[in-house]
Amino acid sequence: MSTLLDNLDLFTTGFKNTVILFVVSGLFALILGTIVGAMRVSPVPALRAFGTLYVNVIRNTPLTLVLFFFALGYPKLGLPEIDFMTAATIGLSLYTATYVAEVLRSGINTVPVGQAEAARAIGLPFTQTLTLVILPQAFRSVLPPLFSVLIALLKNTTVAAGFSVAEAGAIRANLSERGYPAMEGLLWVALFFVILVLILAQLQRYFEKKWKVAR
Amino acid sequence: MSSVLYDAPGRKARTRHLVLGVVGTLVILAILGFIVWRFAETGQFSAAKWKIFTFPLVQRTLLNAVGATLSAFAVAAVGSLVLGIVLAIGRLSDRVWVSRPFHWFTELFRAIPVLILMMMIYYGLPPLFGVNWPPFVAVVVALILYNGSVLAEVFRAGIEALPKGQREAGFAIGMRKSQVMQSILLPQAVRSMLPVIISQLVVTLKDTALGFIVTYNEILFQAKYFGSQAQYGSPIVPAAIVAGVLYVGMCLILSGLAKFAESRLRRSPRVSGGRKGTAMVAAQDAAAQI
Description:
The structure holds two protein chains of two kinds. By secondary structure, chain A is mainly α.
């Protein structure tokens, strides 16, 4: 207990950064993922191909390598400097967006064919069919897998700790500098993650109930 | 190519798609071109920065690093499959005092980030027991605990999705519970969930890269080492490209296996649960814990 109370500053900054990373990159990942998912089902072959390429390459790259590139490689490219936090946000968003895109694409497939046919029958073009009819239903039916992607993103934020971002995963290194046992600190970190995941799971249950569709 | 989302394009639509396609391609090529231009401008493609990767010793070290990644993956994959089956069976037990602890175990290890688990095993445990173990142990054990718990849920979902008649038929011909599980339920569940299981294994392969942070001597660790050699111009970007090619290559081979397994399953009408069943597997597959 004293490990937690004596180092409350470390824990609060750590988890504050974790939550910021999670919320910001989650938001960007959802937006980018929806765009890429729409590209992958669009009638334009070139856009389909680029969407597939992006998803296949990034999904087969470890997140550690993506962050490695943004933290260590990016500064060598002579572009405007960004701090580690921004770099981690970009890396996490680009990585998670591929998973969001895949989940949405599989969700689009679960929407009954009649819905799209009805939309086309009343003359809606592709963009309206997608945004007004298909996507709202797809979002509801993929809520559980979408939340597992978000939970995974929350846990993945710890990887950023390996690249000098002062978030929850970095608490251990700072604790051992101050001479506190590593195990106790890590157990606290793990406990807080379990709590955060439980909150997300609760949120999922709430939205599932709220957006339940009768089919 | 036509889809339910849009009609087969007519003359006007085809022109519009062509225009959109050209514009989209130009925008994306511009982005890619900008990145390549930045790479070239800062000399990332210069021979001097790549020279270090031409030495046989460096290549051999990288090959050893690939071996280290693959050996960690192999042990973790086998271990997590076994743990997954054990946890799934435990959780499906009829006795509450057996299934409850198994449930907690899976939920707990699914909620803790793998990296935190690795740190616990590598930095946290040794001082408590007064022993030291190599980072390999930390990487493998953490991956087994996490992926085993995820796979347990996959197996359980597979078993519960089977028609009830399968279990009942087993009991009707006088099999015991363990026999029903072993020879009727598990084989079918594993077959129908094979795509999800393999994509979880791809995740395991990718997660071995986390070993980099607990100083396990794998691909990324070596890449950083070579990338920071100042006498060769700190070729960190070339090193990242090399590591990326190695990882993407290995994962594509595994993903290819997943596609192959899926196409084999499509051919067999016995296991596919119709459109809904495959849609469920696809959704789970897409959401495979990252």
